[in-house]
Amino acid sequence: MTSEGDDSLPHLHIDVEACDGGARAGTVRTARGAYRTPAFMPVGTRGAVRTLSAEDLEALGAEVVLGNTYHLMLRPGAEVIAGLGGLHRFMGWRGHLLTDSGGFQVFSLRPTVDEEGATFASTYDGSRHQLTPETAVAVQAALGADIQMALDVCPALPAPHQAVQEATERTQRWAARARAAFLDVAARPAHQAQFGIVQGGVDEALRARGARHLAELGFEGYGIGGLSVGEPRSEMVPALAAATAELPPDRPRYLMGVGDPAGLVEAVANGVDMFDCVLPTRLARHGTVLTTAGRLNLRNARFARDDGPLDPDNPCPLVSRYSRGYLRHLFGVHELTAMRIVTLHNLWWLFDLVARMRAAIVQGTFATLRRDVLETWDGR
Predict the structure, then answer these.
(1) According to the model, what pLDDT value does residue 2 have?
(2) Which of 20, 100, 146, 203 is labelled catalytic?
(3) What CATH number does the domain located at 13-277 have?
(4) Angle, to 10 degrees, between the axis of helix 204-217 and the axis of helix 161-184?
């Protein structure tokens, strides 16, 4: 099965503008417009990035935001969002949107899984639901994001080889069903594209085989799932490289759930274009700041009289007026404003890192940037 030559499909591809080793900088062209890569996508789990508005995301320079299918299908429901004009209008967001398939959240609930799909209980009210490759396509078509993800099976790591192999093979079968459903859904928005997801644990052979299979199905892009879930980076990177080596060079590659600086530079070094993660926003809500010198915990007493900005070497222009001492005070009295300010800083800091990676690839200095980031962040 392939979508090559199908004029009814959105024309989504990546123009690679520069390479430095395996790292690449480019522009993803979509029916909506374009966004630059490497790209970090903030996670708007329930239709919003925690503590921020769409205007905040625009001010930060975000180009793609991720929505969570599992949560949105349960509350308020895909049909409600569709009736209110789709997820873009619902959120008031004018940029690109990607929705995940819901599989990661469903499999974290230990569902009943068979060849048809996964049956699970809602975390909201205990009601029973079944998610299949076809229903995941239909729900995401109703949400109307620019990119939807095929439903996959995400095994927890570490896991026995047999379990990982079975999950990988079922993911491949589900990917074929998801692709067929996507090509058939009459209600699918004309602008919507679909990414498949490569699984395979840390087994390089399974990753390569899974990537080849998905490439044959002709998706508009490819996610790489089931990594950065607790395995050491020494196992993650070879598995990642085995997958990217088999994926089409003219389609974007998306490493799912990675947002730590060391993980980002290692993934970019191995040809990844897109990322998402709750890390910068979750850290912010607990008073942890991303800085040039590493993580900084504002709850530490030593910051009580600190009049400096959050990162003196790279201050976020949106919040540079606020001192560490002031923000520590706000966290101490449980003032929600503190979470918002540090969230703005952390996302801006990651966007700046991604921009510096892009510039270094263009200039041929990515290896130096990678070394510097790893010296500060590896293992943290």
Answers:
(1) 46
(2) 100
(3) 3.20.20.105
(4) 10
